[in-house]
Each structure stands twice: as structure tokens, then as C-alpha cells.
């Protein structure tokens, strides 16, 4: 379990808080979606969760253990983070080397590394990119490579910051199908302004101006038009049309049966 208590954050010379008294719990093997418009603080929150920045105040507990300067390394050992702009985090120039780099620091044998990379890249549809230079691929392909480089490390928690922002519809659904296939033993935290995939969530957290406006189930959030308007969020037309046609309860029943592919097909039909 991941537990944040009264977390606030501001930059050293900043006068105003970027995050203001944030408290939340994220259960093991759950899927949490954190939504908000630009400037809501959702990316800052994701970086605190992933350990790339430290809160100004508040408590961070991971598996009921209070995170301090002495055990801060625990965050990195358990939580993987895919940045919104992946090219800023690449450490090598070659796609295959970029995916492999974290594994090579571990104890995996070369043959195991090769098999893991091939399996992950195949499922994400990027096998054809392995020999390419990371600077010669598209932004969407960079997002997939960054995701693959974290997934191969098999960490317990994955934090994904706007992972679909540069992907076309087909690539977006390949990415999502991979997540659904590998979600059983992982905790996912998705940071986004796009509500398309929010119906998959165990919990949705709505943010505005560094605060949490509301937390709840997808049906509680997506049917609260006043809340979404207040947070400057819009339900994508494809999702709204699907909700209007089937009703949110029928869609949730579809997802509860594990039939995510049917939902993706429906969304794709409305997007095309």
C-alpha cells in the first residue's frame, strides 16, 4: 500500500504551494487514475510518488514503512516511473540498449535479458525499432520505449505520466492492451487529462490548483458534470457517445468481466 499524508510541495524560492495538503491511499494491485488540467499539480504529485522529488512537508508511507532520508532508496526499488517527456530520460542512443540498461545493472543472465526484451518489445509492437537510434524515432515510439524500459524491471508499482499523449489510436490501444495483460500483480497509477481510459480505474482522483477536489469510483466521477467542469476537464467525445449509448453501468459490467478489448473496439469505432 502507498499512503501519502498531508503532503505539500513548493520549490525552494517559490512562495506558493504547488501541492497543498494532499492525502491519499493507493491499494496494492489497484489501478488509480489521477486527472487534472494543466497546472493542477498532477505531474508534481507523480514525481513525489516516484521519488524523483521530495515533498516540502507531510508523510510518505510505502508498505506501511515511513519513508525517510535513510530509506529513500525503497521508492526506486519498488516504483517505476515513465516521464511525460521520455527523451529527457534516455541514457543511451540505441533503442535495445535503452530497454536493457536497467536489467544489465541487475543479476539477469544475458540470455534472460534478450528474451525479456524480445517478449516486451513484441507485445508493445516495437520489435522493429530495437536497432534504431532513439533520436530517429517518433515521440509516440519514444513513449513506448520508455515504458518498455521500466516494464522489463518488473517493479511492483508503475507510475505513468501522460503515457498516451503522442500516440495514435492504434498505438494507444496496443499500449493499453499490454497494461491490461500485465496488470494482475502490479499497481498502476496513471496521470492524465484524458478520461478515455478512466473507466478501467479502481479509483479516480481529480485535482485542481494543487488540491484534490474529489476521489471516487469512475461512475461517481464521470457522471458528475459539475465536478468535471470545475476541474476544467472534458469527457472525450468518443467516451461520451459510448456512455450515452450504453450507459456507464453496462460499460462497467463489460470491464468487470475482463472484456477490455470490446471496450477498446467500441472506443476505436467512435474515434475513427
Summarize the structure.
This protein is of the alpha/beta class and 272 residues long. It contains 11 helices and 10 strands. The chain has 2 domains: 2-235, 3-Layer(aba) Sandwich (Rossmann fold); 236-272, no CATH class.
Average pLDDT figure: 88
H/I helix tally: 11
Total domains, how many? 2
Q: What characterizes the major β-sheet?
A: 6 strands, mixed
| Percent range of helical residues | 25-40%
Which descriptor suits the 3D outline?
Answer: globular
Characterization of the model:
- It is a single chain.
- By secondary structure, this protein is α/β, with parallel strands linked by helices.
- The protein has two domains: 234 residues, P-loop containing nucleotide triphosphate hydrolases (Rossmann fold); 37 residues, no CATH class.
- 39% of the residues lie in helices and 21% in strands.
- It has eleven helices and ten strands.
- A six-stranded mixed β-sheet has the order 6-7-8-3-9-10, with helices on both faces. A four-stranded antiparallel β-sheet has the order 2-1-4-5, covered by helices on one side.
- The chain starts with a strand and ends with a helix.
- The model has no long low-confidence stretch (mean pLDDT 88).
